[in-house]
Amino acid sequence: MKSYVEKRVICIICPRGCEIRVRLVDGKIISVEGYSCPMGKKYAEQEVCSPKRVLMTIVRCENGDLPVVSVKTSGPVPKDKLLEISRYLAGIKVKPPIRIGDVIIRNVLDLGVDIVATRPCMPVENKYSDQK
Ligand code: SF4
Known about the structure:
- The protein is 16% helix and 33% strand.
- By secondary structure, the chain is α+β, with helices and mostly antiparallel strands.
- The protein folds into two domains: 4-49, N-terminal domain of TfIIb; 56-131, CPE0013-like fold (Roll), CATH 3.10.530.10.
């Protein structure tokens, strides 16, 4: 017996926020309706089959002017890998100086994306002298 499923996805690519309906039979997409442009169709298909997200989190910073540095993935990663990446990053400590855009981890968990800093962290003693 075949399984029919309809999923509704709100497209977040632009502010219009189209509501897109994706129908699947036995896990395979048979129709996509409600999108207003090709980007929305592609987004909805990906959201249903393999959703991805950009992860934003923090890593600990040793002897820095801040105890943590905010970081993000350089691109979207599979949603089901977010927890695994977060756990991995929980065990990481970085050393200052860290500048915005610095790669903290290259190719994290072999996912093809890097972890990059989104906030600077300076050594405590250089907090003010390094900002000139
Ligand atoms: S389907 Fe196209 S028009 Fe609609 S929200 Fe997505 S990007 Fe915007």
